[in-house]
Specification:
heterodimer; A: 254 residues; alpha/beta; 6-stranded mixed sheet; 4-stranded antiparallel sheet; 37% helix; globular; B: 263 residues; mainly alpha; flat
Chain lengths: 254, 263
């Protein structure tokens, strides 16, 4: 049996008195796309940020390809370069062009030459369909374009897994499609992905496995067909009903 | 489109007008400067010493203090955001003391205490060194705060994005945070540099032969205080306006397209 790319064991995290994660155990297998859904404040973003230790978990363990990455002697920068992240607010480096946004980590972390890094950056931009924006600054691009560059920056590192933290939540509705399309393309290419999302239809179409988090615990998980169409848990059902209603708002009366 | 063009025209017009005004002021200043006789008796003893020599001293003290202050500012500014309690504590105490006491007292203190320790006599050379030292460490405290503020006003997501791609803290600082902070701090730094130029006048109190000191000599000799001090003000104004124009050029040169373009 294959080793999970990521495995968390009984992960907990509190901010002050607020217990955000109350013991999360999950596995991400190679080439698998995992969608993590749940209401705002359920802890799903914190879970993602604990996986690459942007937030330090309080207890529990995280295994990356079978090895624990918790502890002082772990080279966390090395681990992070193999599980890169896409953020809700894009977080492109504002002072750099699209191409340099992608080539900077390649040069600094992977120690590539300028030519190699630029070549990989252009290839990545081509994959997200933004080659003509190579010399544009983030401030000169739309939100959707910025997020596609951010995705290109993340996968240009050739990570073992890509982490997405609500990648479409900060976008205007008409820009969400182009970003989801790029993500679907990556999934089709066999990329391992963990996606925290509110896009139930994306989870339904692309994910292999859906995890529903509620109040810091995994309440229900399974293949999208079971999870999203016939949820067993009452809270899951309520959540899905509410989100789907928001997604298919009735047309305004004339 | 029309409105945009009009706005640009007005903008170009304004900047031309301000440039003309500046040049006129500078010409007047230099005209007046050349009218002043260079009188040996102003400073006593032999040799000649005039406004230009005094202005050179002011410029020299100011430039060295700004540059040394900037180096201090980067180190202390980074120390101020350090999580290390000792480093942070030392930096905080440094800033609080230098910011919380008068610069004139700092100049006296250094002149009378530190220069004898460094084996310098009480002469002109040690006065100039004391003035530069005091201005540098004083400006260093202010520049440290400006740099700290600049770094802290960069959104946290920038650091997180850099760290999440595997960059170390130092790499993220060097390539992501500082280049952006550098652009943000240009306006407050302009203020600080203008302040240093004006504060260099306090060096007159320990006998450094800069413009203010020289003007007091001229007043004693000619007894035309109003004209003389007006002229001194003009020289300072020329220096500070020149500085703020250089900084404005730097700001435009390093502007990021589509970012921080508040008009």
């Amino acid at each position: 049996m294959a080793i999970p790319v990521i495995e968390t064991k009984d992960l907990t995290k509190s901010f002050g008195d607020n217990k955000v994660l109350k013991g999360i155990s999950m596995k991400v297998m190679p080439k698998e796309v995992i969608a993590i859904i749940g209401a705002s404040g359920s802890g799903k973003s914190t879970l993602l940020r604990c996986i690459n230790r942007l937030n330090e978990p309080d207890s529990g363990d995280i295994l990356f390809e079978g090895n624990s990455i918790i502890g002082k002697d772990i080279d966390i920068d090395m681990v992070r370069s193999q599980m890169t992240m896409v953020f809700q607010s894009f977080n492109l480096f504002m002072h750099l062009t699209a191409r340099k946004n992608i080539s900077l980590p390649l040069r600094q972390v992977k120690k590539l030459s300028k030519e190699e890094a630029d070549k990989l950056a252009m290839e990545a931009l081509e994959k997200v369909g933004l080659i003509e924006k190579a010399d544009a600054y983030p401030g000169e691009m739309s939100g959707g374009q910025q997020q596609r560059v951010a995705i290109a920056r993340a996968f240009a590192m050739h990570p073992k897994v890509l982490l997405f933290d609500e990648p479409t939540s900060a976008l205007d509705p008409q820009l969400i499609g182009e970003v989801l399309e790029v993500m679907k393309k990556l999934a089709d290419m066999g990329m391992t992905m963990v996606v925290v999302t509110h896009e139930i239809s994306f989870a339904k179409d692309v994910a292999d496995h859906v995890i529903f988090i509620d109040q810091g615990l995994i309440l229900e998980e399974g293949p999208p067909k079971d999870m999203l169409i016939n949820p067993k848990n009452e809270r899951t059902r309520q959540f899905l009903k509410r989100v789907l209603q928001e997604e298919n708002l009735p047309p305004l009366p004339q | 489109m029309d409105v945009k063009e009009l706005k640009e025209q007005i903008k170009a017009h304004k900047s031309v007008l301000s440039k003309i005004a500046l040049v006129v002021i500078i010409i007047i200043a230099f005209y007046v400067m050349l009218q002043q006789p260079v009188n040996n008796n102003y400073i006593g003893g032999g040799g000649t010493f005039g406004w230009i020599d005094a202005a050179q001293t002011t410029v020299f003290i100011s430039i060295i203090s700004i540059v040394v202050g900037f180096s201090i500012g980067i180190v202390v500014g980074l120390a101020r955001i350090s999580r290390n309690i000792i480093i942070n504590g030392i930096a905080t105490v440094y800033v609080e003391i230098l910011r919380g006491t008068p610069l004139l007292i700092q100049i006296f203190f250094i002149y009378y205490s530190l220069t004898p320790l460094m084996g310098l006599g009480g002469g002109l050379e040690s006065a100039t060194i004391s003035a530069i030292l005091a201005l540098s460490i004083n400006s260093g405290a202010y520049q440290a705060e400006i740099i700290r503020g600049g770094i802290q006003s960069i959104p946290r997501g920038q650091l997180e994005a850099a760290r999440s791609s595997g960059m170390t803290y130092l790499q993220a600082m060097r390539h992501v945070i500082l280049p952006q902070a550098f652009r943000l701090i240009i306006p407050p730094m302009t203020n600080e540099y203008v302040t240093v130029i004006k504060d260099s006048s306090l060096a007159y109190a320990i006998g450094v032969m800069e413009i203010t000191w020289f003007s007091t000599r001229v007043v004693v000799w000619d007894f035309e205080p109003i004209t003389t001090y007006l002229f001194v003000a003009l020289i300072y104004f020329t220096l500070t306006t020149f500085t703020s124009n250089i900084m404005r050029f730097v700001e435009q040169r390093f502007r990021i397209p589509g970012y921080m373009v508040g008009e």
